[in-house]
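Dear H.,

Thanks for agreeing to be a second pair of eyes. The structure we're designing against is below in token form, covering all 72 positions.
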């Protein structure tokens, strides 16, 4: 809560900002984790544009949620 108490902007996503994988390259197969990272990146870019732009950048478009189940 330190960031909120110091009035710092917080960039959020749709869930915890993490992707899972055991072996190298497996995290890229975590569809939900990768979507969460893309959403985080979109939100970061939007906030930077909003802070530094003279105009009014539109809110980023959202992808439909893609849940991932690790039990197969």
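And this is the sequence the design step returned. I haven't edited it by hand at all.
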């Amino acid at each position: 809560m330190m960031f909120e108490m110091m009035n710092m902007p917080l960039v959020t996503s749709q869930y915890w900002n993490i992707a899972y994988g055991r072996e190298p390259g497996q995290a890229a197969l975590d569809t939900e984790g990768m979507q969460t990272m893309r959403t985080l990146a979109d939100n970061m870019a939007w906030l930077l544009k909003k802070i530094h732009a003279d105009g009014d950048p539109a809110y980023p478009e959202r992808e439909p949620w893609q849940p991932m189940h690790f039990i197969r």
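Two observations from my side: Residues 16 and 30 are 13 Å apart (CA to CA). The chain is about 35% helix and 0% strand.

Warmly,
E.
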